[in-house]
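Next up, sample data:
>
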Amino acid sequence: MAPEPLMTTDLSCQHNEADAIMLLEESLPLDPLDQPYYDAVANACGSDASPVFCMRLARAYRSEKKAARMGKTVAEAKKVMEWRLEHSADTILGVELDKTHLFRQSWPTVLCGEDYYGHVVSVERAVDIDLATFQSKFTVNEVLVHRLQHLERIQAHLAAASQRTGRRIYKHICVFDLGGVGLKHLTPTVIGYIQPLFALGQQYYPESLFRMYLVNAPFVFWGAWKVLSALIDPDTRDKIQIFTSPAKFCTAAQAQGIPLTSIPTSLGGLHAAPT
């Protein structure tokens, strides 16, 4: 299933040199120091592993000690590949999952466009997530499969962007609007329910997040963040930026390469995302 067109890259927006370096790493051949890990992943996973998959895994565990990195890389690659095969990830975009309509009603997600570099911008709002429906109508595994489909949709858009621009792009941007978050969203039961969702991206889509923005962070969020941040690996945590207002977010986002056309109007942008 081909992804629907998105608003494409706006080359007039601002960007900085640090982000350009990160883009180049996606687009350029592997560093010779990473090549053995690419080869090991390719050998371990065989023809089921795409070049982009091997490249992401080869780069994902650089923070590991040298003696442990190879074992970690190969073990994680096998785990991810087995999980993808178990859930038919390569073909899931062509499948109508059970309760699809209810899931999309209860957790709407909008792909608003791209940043300067071609990274897809995915936007979600806490106020739109119907926790009561999820906890009463969905098992955690059902939610994970629907989120898998969403992440594969993003991967399809990134592949299309790579083909269109002629350069490799395999990372995306996540914008999460925390407006409306209250104590009911931050109970141990809720945190326990969503914990596997944090693990999904980290464990099964390593090296695929370019940046995450948490916007409209309320006062009550900061206490929960101490708990939630401990569930996130340090490399991912370093990619997360938190803002207390849309104005501060928009200023930072534009400086980091996201045009207003890829930011929803609810957060001060120009994209008329469904509300």
Remarks:
- Residues 140-165 form the longest helix (26 residues).
- The first strand starts at residue 109 and ends at 114.
- DSSP finds eleven helices and five strands in the chain.
- Strands lie at 109-114, 120-125, 172-177, 209-215, 240-242.
